[in-house]
Design brief:
Blueprint lengths: L1 H11 L6 H19 L8 E8 L3 E8 L6 H7 L11 H9 L2 E5 L4 E7 L7
Antiparallel strand pairs: 1-2, 2-4, 3-4
Amino acid sequence: MVDRLMGLIERAKCVPGAEFDVELAIREAMGNAVVHGNQENPDKKVHIRCRCESGNQVSIVVTDEGKGFDFLQILGNGLTSDTADVHGHGIQLMRAYMDAVRFERGGSEVHMRKRLRAVSSS
């Protein structure tokens, strides 16, 4: 699914040069939705919506059928020093590679945006 979506994003030239960032964030969001949100239940679905403004920005929404999570607690703590605690690393990666990341529907929906920055001519 991610490969197909990235093909569309690349062909539409939504954010030329920033495709790696977008792909990494999508893979993290989808992985979180399947593993943590839907608890790897094959009967539950993950929905993804993508909106592209060619040469400017891309917006992605990933929604799972899970009960959500306390995203404020994870976001508030940042990365922990405990290497055994892997919760929250995907969220930190999404935040590092995208310009905006927010959670809705109790944490079962993540909204991400990547915008190209205008290059000033000096």
